[in-house]
Specification:
By secondary structure, this protein is of the alpha+beta class. Helix content is 60%, strand content 17%. A hairpin with a 2-residue loop joins strand 3 and strand 4.
Length: 467
Amino acid sequence: MNNLKRFFQSIRFQLTTVLVVFVVVSMVFITSMVVRNVENEIFNVETKRLEIAANQLVERYQKMYDGVAWQYDFGHLTIDEQKLYITNFLKPLFEEYFDEYRKNFPELEFGYYIPPINDEIVYMGLDQYKLDKKLTIIKYVTTKKMPEGYIFVDEPYSIIMGPVEDIKMEANKVTVYSAILAAIFILLISSMFTSKIVRINRGLKVLERNLDFRFPSFGGEIGAIATSINNMAASLKRNIEEAQRNESLRTLGMFTAGVVHEVRNPLTSIKGFAQILEKKLQGKNEEKYVKPILRETYRLSKIVQDLLNYGRPSPLKKVKFNISTFIDEIISMGKQYAAGKEIEFINNCQIETIEADEKKCKELFLNLMINSVQSIGEKGKIVVGSTRKEQFLEISIRDTGAGMNKDQLEHIFVPFYTTKAEGTGLGLAIAYRVVKEHGGKISVKSENNKGTTFYIYLPIGDVKNEA
């Protein structure tokens, strides 16, 4: 009994208790801040997603209305006659489209009130979320610049905040593990704890502001605590980035689906008819009018494909291939984009074998090559080289083009950012993601009027290269 009493009064127990409480409170505080930030980010992303859905429905209704008004010449009809055509033609068309559109988003609730086609609110909700708090976006429908009604889209908060609960659970586990490790460490080597707890305290304060901070290796149990905290920070950051990426891709996927549906089919038809016309008009003066049509359809097809590639990434399929031969192919394709320019292409790559997804790497380096070609005016040079650096292969692409300023360098890998009149701004974003998928790094050096150099570091993989 006396031994137990002495243990509870000992500095070891007191330090252990203080540390456990400190770790738990700090973790709870950090977790609450991170979760709050995640909630705000997810809420903003979902708000934008619902606005896109509502805007698409409003735009479709307005297009349908304009089509019916034009077809039946509303300008020469009475109000009653217009209502008759709206009821008989516009109403069934919009109701059919509205029902089909709603099926694409089973997690959302839709409704509308548009007096020209319905006298009461039409609402298609989810019974299981009837009593839930919901995020609602309302968009007004206007024709002839006058409001006629509105369309609204709901999403239950329990669906929106689903990823946050997973993050909370993971954070709680890490908090418990950290507290246990802290107690064990103090009980074993309390004499060494005082100086190290000060460092832990300072580090946690930094971690509150910066999840990229990592503790150094201390050794022993306190080192295990530091490692657990590092893992927690990394886990929280990964979960945040994954939640943000998934929400962004969901929004982009919805947008991509609309683009593919609205653009790909008519684009294919245009291209097919243009090819037929080109054959029929071959050798005639009118042939020159068809070629621009074909050229633009190929460009639009590339834009649609870029959107698909970024919005629907596929898993890696790694194979072994020779980087020098591979770059020869990239240069050959790059020359096609350099037509009309005097550009010298140089391949200084070593004969190295690398294990990677060849198809995605082709997309990566072709995007960088096209970027270099586009940055060069009438005449210039593009040099590709490679150097082995431990387990990585550094591949550089240097051009003598226009270069970039500091602001452009900070945004070049941001999706949809572009300084060009044409293109989607996805080329370099796709290149960046391919590098990250391989566990590599990409950096860039550039100055205005002095050219640009991209440095790509890819893991060599399980291959043997002769020295």
